[in-house]
Amino acid sequence: MSDPERLLAELRRHVSDKRVLEAVRAVPRDRFVPAHLRHDAWENAPLPIGAGQTISQPLVVARMCELLALRGDESVLDVGTGSGWHAAILARLAAHVWSIEVHESLSRTAAATLAECGIANVSLVVGDGSRGLPEHAPYDAINVAAAAPGRALPPALLEQLAAGGRLVAPVGDDDQRLVVARRGRRGDVRVDELERVRFVPLVSR
Looking at 56, 83, 107, 130, which residue is catalytic? Predict the structure, then answer.
């Protein structure tokens, strides 16, 4: 069994969305990690990518994508580009992805990797992810790949979520939880707290 198939077999025990699983299979994770870590790229584990950041654990990425429940026609905001792997998977599940990263060096590397992989429906921006990208809002879905402190989601991100949209993010300091925020058609927001996770902190400037 190949490394990607072995990872997919593990993910299927926890993730049932076939579109998400196919996206994970289709995006070459080994292209999004430093060269000396490529032999570990298909392990179900986070890996360092520089600037104190990591490429997230595949299971967590797949779960977050599943919770967004994307159909293929959405505009998505991705907070915390990192390596660009999560954005690349979202790009296979939605119409367009706007991805913001506070570290310019990571954004530059992600842009090169996305181009090498032929992924054209991701737009990269360097900036403070906690403020979102209001100029392109509202978004049908918002993915946050860094933990908001405390138990509060950044207000700017909630404001940029479209009616009927979903936001998935980790929140917390030592005890982090994955949460899903759903905006109703009348503007109300419901937040559900799910499983424990571990992410780098959301950096705000």
Answer: 56
Residue 143 covered by a domain? yes
The tally of CA atoms less than 13 A away on the side-chain side of residue 89 is: 29
135 lies in which domain range? 3-196
187: left (phi over 0), alpha (psi -120 to 50) or beta: left
Beta strands in 67-130 (DSSP E): 75-79, 96-101, 122-126
| Residue 16 a catalytic site member | no
Task: State how many domains the chain has.
Answer: 1
Between 68-72, 123-127, 170-174, 179-183, the lowest mean confidence (pLDDT) is in 170-174
**φ, ψ at 123 (rounded to 5°):** -110, 125
Strand (E) or helix (H) holding 177? strand 177-183
- Looking at residue 90, which CATH number applies to its domain? 3.40.50.150
DSSP 87: H
Q: Which residues, in sequence order, are CB contacts of 43 under 8 Å at separation 6+?
A: 7
Write down the pTM of the prediction.
0.96
Give the model's pLDDT for residue 62: 98
